[in-house]
Design goal:
It is a single chain. The chain contains 4 helices and 7 strands; from the N terminus they run E-H-H-E-E-E-H-E-H-E-E. By secondary structure, it is an alpha+beta fold. It has a 7-stranded mixed beta sheet with strand order 1-2-3-4-5-7-6. Helix 3 links the parallel strand 4 and strand 5.
């Protein structure tokens, strides 16, 4: 079940994102670290009603942020659609013990249905240039890679921006 995230869900979400960070680092992917994602980001997401969680057997195993707010870092990208009526996906995570079972697909299906039902023109997101699994995941869903942005607190490597038009 996917539902709105609440403030009291944030400790569980942080356990998931920390486990994901450790898992990625073990594979040589230095995308998330002790500074990101952080509880403050998830508090803002919950405050704006943009945080969603995935529960299986009453246990939180994943999360996704679906936002109407375009981060400043995205401004230089030449998007496929005008900067209006777009959604942005951030902080998609599934606990490593549950990865490879279609849960990330469920979260993205939810985000895409949400966008279509609310008449948004596209979904935009970014993923780490060193995370080839994520790139393939989004490209197989039809997302188009458009340009690079940088988050120096996370990595010296770029993040690739993607967009899916509806």
């Amino acid at each position: 079940m996917i539902r709105k995230g609440r403030y009291q869900d944030i400790p569980s979400i942080m356990e998931i994102t920390k486990a994901c960070a450790i898992h990625m680092i073990s594979q040589g992917i230095f995308q998330w670290n002790e500074r990101y994602p952080n509880p403050e980001a998830f508090h803002q997401d919950a405050k704006r009603n943009e945080l969603y969680i995935l529960e299986v057997d009453n246990r939180i195993i994943g999360c996704i942020v679906i936002s109407k707010v375009m981060d400043e870092a995205y401004r230089p990208i030449q998007w496929l659609t005008p900067n209006a009526d777009n959604l942005y996906v951030h902080r998609l995570a599934v606990h490593p013990n549950f990865q490879g079972q279609g849960y990330a697909q469920q979260l993205m299906n939810f985000a895409e249905r949400f966008a279509i039902e609310k008449s948004y023109s596209s979904i935009r997101l970014d993923t780490f240039s060193q995370n080839h699994r994520n790139q393939k995941f989004y490209e197989l869903r039809g997302y188009k890679r458009l340009g690079n942005i940088y988050f120096p607190k996370q990595s010296e490597h770029p993040f690739y921006c993607y967009e899916l038009i509806f």
